[in-house]
Amino acid sequence: MSSSTAAEKNRIRKMMLERRNRISATEIYERSRLIQLHVLNSRQFLNSGTVGVYFPKGTEVRTEEIIQKGIEIGKKVALPRIESDEMEFYQLYGKSFQEDNLIMGKFGIKEPIKIGKQINKMDLLIVPGIAFDNQGSRIGYGEGYFDRYIIRTKVSFSLGLGYKFQLVSCNLPQSSLDQKIGGLSIETGMLVF
Predict the structure, then answer these.
(1) Which residue has the higher pLDDT, 13 or 96?
(2) pLDDT tens-place string over residues 134-193
(3) Which of 18, 29, 132, 179 is 20 to 30 A distant from 54 in Cα terms?
């Protein structure tokens, strides 16, 4: 990645995180409910057998309703776990989602205990992001975990979750390793690229 691309991504990342971190807990909850509802009603979710979902940290869009509903209707729901320098997804077991069954992992993100089945094929992968554009590009936290996972795993459809203000009108700078997502769910609906 060129130094100018990296610098521009860092500038956008910093600006968006500052804005996102000003959202109140009530706003996060209300906006996240709408964003998750669009996912739960989408054909991508309804037709999927295996769903990989991030567990939210800080002001990220919440995912607990997606996780719970997926488990309730019999989908294989998996959460990511960082192992060495890679991310792996492990299936959650049980009839309901229990946050208590997660442990604090790298970067202060809750992860599944490594007892579930490792998932190597994903019908729907729900990814976090800091900024998104209308071409399916996203800027994450800069570590490349989701990008590398998409490259090495069979992912049928990847879907970002973000607040409406995180969708920018310009094309985001991208490196050769960045992977485009297939869609984005925001408060006003779901976009498919």
Answers:
(1) 13
(2) 999 999 999 999 999 999 999 999 999 999 999 999 999 999 999 999 999 999 999 999
(3) 18
Burial per residue of 108-123, b for 16 or more beta-carbon CB atoms within 10 angstroms, e otherwise: ebbbbeeebeebeebb
3-state helix/strand/coil string of the chain: CCHHHHHHHHHHHHHHHHHHCCCCHHHHHHHHHHHHHHHHCCHHHHCCCEEEECCCCCCCCCCHHHHHHHHHCCCEEEEEEEECCEEEEEECCCCCCCHHHEEECHHHCEEECCCCCEECEEEEEEECCCEEECCCCEECCCCCHHHHHHHHCEEEEEEEECCHHHEECCCCCCCCCCCCCCEEEECCEEEEC
* pLDDT exceeds 70 at position 96: no
Confidence of residue 84 (pLDDT cuts 50, 70, 90): confident
Domain ranges, ordered by start, for the chain = 3-192
CATH number of 3-192: 3.40.50.10420
The residue among 103, 17, 124 whose CA lies nearest residue 60 is: 17
